[in-house]
Alpha-glycosidase
Amino acid sequence: MLLEAVYHRPKLNWCYAYDGRTIHLRIRTKRNDVTAVSAMAGDKYIWDRSKTYVPMTKLASDELFDYWECEIVPEYRRLKYGFLLQKGAEKYWMTEYDFLKQEPENPDRLFEYPFINPVDVFETPDWVKGAVFYQIFPERFANGDPANDPEGTLPWGGTPKPDNFFGGDLQGVIDHIDHLSELGINAVYFTPIFKATTNHKYDTEDYMQIDPQFGDLDTLKKLVAICHERGIRVILDAVFNHSGRTFAPFVDLQKNGEKSRYKDWFYIRKYPIAVEDGIPTYDTFAFEPLMPKLNTAHPEVKEYLLKAAAYWIKEADIDGWRLDVANEVDHEFWREFRKVVKGIKPDAYILGEIWHESSPWLMGDQFDAVMNYPFTNAVLDFFVDGTRDARSFANALASQYVRYPRQVNEAAFNLLDSHDTARLLTKCDGNKEQMKLAVQFQFTYTGTPCIYYGDEIGLTGGHDPGCRKCMEWDETKQDRELFSFYRELIALRKKYGALRTGSLKFLSAKAGSTSLVYTREDENDKIVIFMNNAAKAKNINVSVPEERWQDIRTGDNVSAHSGVLSMKLPAYGCVMLRAL
């Protein structure tokens, strides 16, 4: 047994309260090294009569390690615990201090979860687990009110450029709300809608005003109310890392320099503020002069931004915030932000834009979730670019999954493209079947999926600005078959809870292979999903204990023979079967 590979630590993703009564324990071992793991657990004050051994199951495996998990409901909400590791006849007991060859005589040196204090339990919004998000870039979705078009607005459908306008607005979203309802969408994420100079609005001029080209407070209230009537939640984009160059405090700073009362609202390295050799003399987002970085530790800045965060929830009844460049803002600001937001609307969704491993922000005191770009990258690597085989893909997902507590994974924001990336269909070189296979994985994986506006009707586009083209509203130019595919997939996800929050297990993900078989299972259903990520048909066989199955799309019955389920899939085919 390779003890050097064994790892556990209290709290974080290794020992956490899933709810007010339940503790999840995890431990890591070398892949295929340990044959069985049990948690030795009990109450430290009545150890002798409460001690028990709880078998652990293999939660996931990556290239190097196996990850084991068990669930314990302690009678008195506290837990002393260690682990029994077995490899054939070889046994080790793991304590907080040592590996022992005999069971420890008392619990003094075991690990401990001191007490499940309800206020410390990380609760993510329950509605997010069942959400299907739709991302809208307002300037390019629909022009519902030409009267508010900015000067120089171009005819709808032209070539998108970094600095042109087509007149999209909030009224346009209202006008096309039936499109979202027909699709089955129940949550919308808007990129920024507050006053700014650009078409993307990430250079905020006034955090307390809707950009006039999009409408006003009444328009937003009307939109949110209509969405809520249809069971659609609404989250807005908060750009709190930086403002725009036309933000009043920065305008004052540009005018008055070191004498400005707002000079400490920003990070100034040198006066007068300027751009030297392409680098501003003040901190910005990237090196963009239009976007000066805000000092979110400054009391006045903090007060202003937190007031804005609260205002839009109170006034417009929005359901949460997506936080731009969230990892460049100080943690203390986000802790206060969470208290303010959750104090007004406890089930508001707080979503951070972070493209990497995000544990420091996902400990229950800051965000509910992050935009899950590690998931995006793994899916694109396997389904689109072919740079991973099935085993490497499964390993990548496992590594990511075990980083976080279950409640974080259940609320993860799983996207395949956005306003910051090339569109999925373009990434697939127009291969719609390949695109659909990637989307089917997205919709059958743990977390909440997000559709970038227009993907559902075949919109294409390369990186910004190509990915920000106008939505196509002429149905004769829409891919209605693709729309029907998305609608059916959303309906299936809503129908079967196993596809949302059920356990996930790979039954087949082999080195060198382009096929996958995995299950999603909860107390009501077990669904096995076959995927052929290849340009030609393929027979896929997998061992299953159940004999009778039904295709959840067609209703056709399928039988396993001698414990083997065999399916022939077309190129880029997918079959989902439910055990009967």
